[in-house]
Structures are given as C-alpha cells and as structure tokens.
Write a structure and sequence with these properties.
The chain is an alpha+beta fold. About 25% of the residues lie in helices and about 25% in strands.
Amino acid sequence: MIRRLPVIPTIIVLIAVGIMIRLGFWQLDRLHEKEGELARLAANVSAPMIDFPADRLDQSNLFRPARLDCRNPAPAVMAGAGKAGFRMIAECEGGAKVQLGTARDPMTKVTWAGGLVTGSIGQVPDLRPMIVTAFDHSPRELMLVADQPQAGLSPNPRARWTRCPTTTCPMRCSGSSSPPLRW
C-alpha cells in the first residue's frame, strides 16, 4: 500500500520555506541600509563642529563634534560606564545633558557651574531592561560627551572608528575598509 503525502504539514512547511526566503531578501535589503548608516556615522566623526542640536532625539548627528553652552546645570548624576567606572552626567537648563567625565569611585561628587562645553554627540545611557529595549525601538536621547573632563574626573572615552560590534553588523566586519564607530 502506498502511503499518501500529509497535505496539511506539507502546506505548513512550504509556507515556512517561503517566509524564510522572504526574510533572507529582507536581510540583504537591510544590509545596504546599514552600510549607508555606518558610512554616515564615519563621516560624522570628522565633520565640522556644530552647536548641540535642539532636537535631542535626531540620531543623524550621532558622534559629530559639537559645542553647548550649558547654563544653570542640575547636580551631576552617575550612570554606569562599564570598565570606565561611572559616568557623571549633568542636565543643563533646557534639558540638554552633558557627560562631564568618568569616575571609578561611586562616592565621587562633582560641583560644576556650567559653561561652554565641546565634545562629541553620544547617547544618554539606557537604563531600561534589555528585554524592554528589544521591543521598544524609540530613539535614545542625545547628550554631549565632553572632550575635557571636569576637575576630579577621568577623561571620557573618545569616539573613534575602530572595530565592528558583531551584534549589529557581522557581515560588514569581514573585508571592511572602514569598521564602525565604538566608544
């Protein structure tokens, strides 16, 4: 007796194969978008200095040199910075944030009266759990990462174009002439 091909499981498998093929083409389309984004970020590192943008969610100026006249800053708060210790971040009048430097000691206190700050545009640390960030793709707020640390703080890591983060662009790393930006 000849056994019949199961119809419903076969249809399900064929639909799954079609979805996988479509996802593969989607990833190839995304590769071109990602390469364009990486080229823009690489250009931002060496672009001319600008005033810190009023739109603190516009990611097009990320890693670009900028200046900010920070008036009446609130007391600096700490945020984790991995190997560097703790970031000292002050909020200026109007809501702009400035990373003044880093400190290894969690008891470090910084008194800063504000003033003109130059540095690179970075993102405010995201304190949300990783599972939340996986589903919420809203842009992170921008801040100015100061070139010169305030008294008693270590310098901020400089923006530099070094190596590729494997979670965001593994295909770009192999054979790339200009790897993406890392802090």
